[in-house]
From TrEMBL:
<feature type="domain" description="Aminoacyl-transfer RNA synthetases class-II family profile">
    <location>
        <begin position="62"/>
        <end position="323"/>
    </location>
</feature>
<keyword id="KW-0648">Protein biosynthesis</keyword>
<dbReference type="GO" id="GO:0006433">
    <property type="term" value="P:prolyl-tRNA aminoacylation"/>
</dbReference>
<dbReference type="InterPro" id="IPR006195">
    <property type="entry name" value="aa-tRNA-synth_II"/>
</dbReference>
<dbReference type="InterPro" id="IPR002316">
    <property type="entry name" value="Pro-tRNA-ligase_IIa"/>
</dbReference>
<protein>
    <recommendedName>
        <fullName>Probable proline--tRNA ligase, mitochondrial</fullName>
        <ecNumber>6.1.1.15</ecNumber>
    </recommendedName>
</protein>
<keyword id="KW-0436">Ligase</keyword>
<dbReference type="InterPro" id="IPR045864">
    <property type="entry name" value="aa-tRNA-synth_II/BPL/LPL"/>
</dbReference>
<dbReference type="InterPro" id="IPR004154">
    <property type="entry name" value="Anticodon-bd"/>
</dbReference>
<dbReference type="InterPro" id="IPR033730">
    <property type="entry name" value="ProRS_core_prok"/>
</dbReference>
<dbReference type="Pfam" id="PF03129">
    <property type="entry name" value="HGTP_anticodon"/>
</dbReference>
<dbReference type="GO" id="GO:0004827">
    <property type="term" value="F:proline-tRNA ligase activity"/>
</dbReference>
<dbReference type="InterPro" id="IPR050062">
    <property type="entry name" value="Pro-tRNA_synthetase"/>
</dbReference>
<dbReference type="InterPro" id="IPR036621">
    <property type="entry name" value="Anticodon-bd_dom_sf"/>
</dbReference>
<dbReference type="GO" id="GO:0005739">
    <property type="term" value="C:mitochondrion"/>
</dbReference>
<keyword id="KW-0067">ATP-binding</keyword>
<dbReference type="Pfam" id="PF00587">
    <property type="entry name" value="tRNA-synt_2b"/>
</dbReference>
Amino acid sequence: MKWINRVSKLFQPTNVVPKSYLPKIDVSSKSHQLMINTGIISNSSTGMFTFLPLGLKALEKLTKIIDEEMMLIGGQKIYLPALTSASLWRRTSRMVESQPELFMIMDRHGKEYLLSPTFEESITNVISSLGSLKRNKLPLKLYQISRKWRDEIKPRLGLLRSREFIMKDLYTFDSNLENATNTYNIVKSAYETILNRIGIPHLKIFADPGTIGGSISHEYHYLSNIGEDIIKLCKNCNYYEGRFKESKSYCPSCQQSLDKINSVEIGHTFLLGTKYSEPLQATFIDNNNKRQFLVMGSFGLGLSRILATAIEILSTDLEIRWPLKLAPYTVCIIPPKEGSKEESASSVAYDLYFELQNSNIDVIIDDRIKETIGKRFIEARKSGYPFVVVVGKNSLNSVPLIEVHDIYNSSQFKLELNEVLQYLKNIL
């Protein structure tokens, strides 16, 4: 027998929000409050969060999109240890400027480690420890999706500025700058595809390489009032620039004034050159059988930040809205209330459930039949299910009809059972 996803069994601790509720934007962000109120995440400690089942399911869907696109460009998935030897960061000269934001620990032998906020040193040390790579192994693209750590002086805005966060980081290794630049452009294109699949408009801008370093760098941003970054935008010709550019008050293309808008950085790419491979001795054997330093690239995407910003942008004050492809469950089915006139139609709800499940559509059934349909419908909206299917009084018609609510588009249909299946399959 197949497992049935039931709301009654779902671990979703929720906060009751009164009708007079107003978002406490001065305390937190809308996304943070919604994710707490609807049982997506829970606070573990300052700047640390537990992903609960619905939140983890959305994260897994985002991970799947990234894995698919990384596979298409030859990315190979690995998993690096969370702890990195502090000596590696000293060899690359990053320790001094970065130490205030690092979580440092010491083992019983007095050796220093850090909880890595990024893994350039760690992955380069892996390559170096294996000896010189053969040229036919290049370009090498290794990535992971894991937790990272930063000792934020003042964690805020939930997952947008936390001490522990989830990132995808990719590191590439090439034989020369020309090849590394080509790889850099391939990965940039893959990032564009990933963000387009998520479905929220984004901007890609030239950026300052900062402490990570390199010769070329780009940032990827979502526009949101909650964002702490500032982008200048010309609404007339869609010209934009980030903080890395020289400050201008007008657009160089059409001379119109530039508006300042807030944004959230959700990705960053770097063409590193040999900044890490030289001090850590990561090399390959060239055609003349000589050792040469590998030319590297580093590419990051903030998964937890993407989820939080998506909710921030799309949601109402009281109801979560996910990007359709990241919604934990795409369809929620609400069967009749126990003891109601339409209770005899309960089997229709389960027939529909199994049909959708067999069509690989993520579906959950709200089997709390002692609750009214209205109450369950409100809770389904709050949880952010894109489609809510109600088997109610219309199911007793001579031609039984099922209510299909397209929540995100504020539309509703009454369809026959076979039409419900076809409608949802066509969309999803």
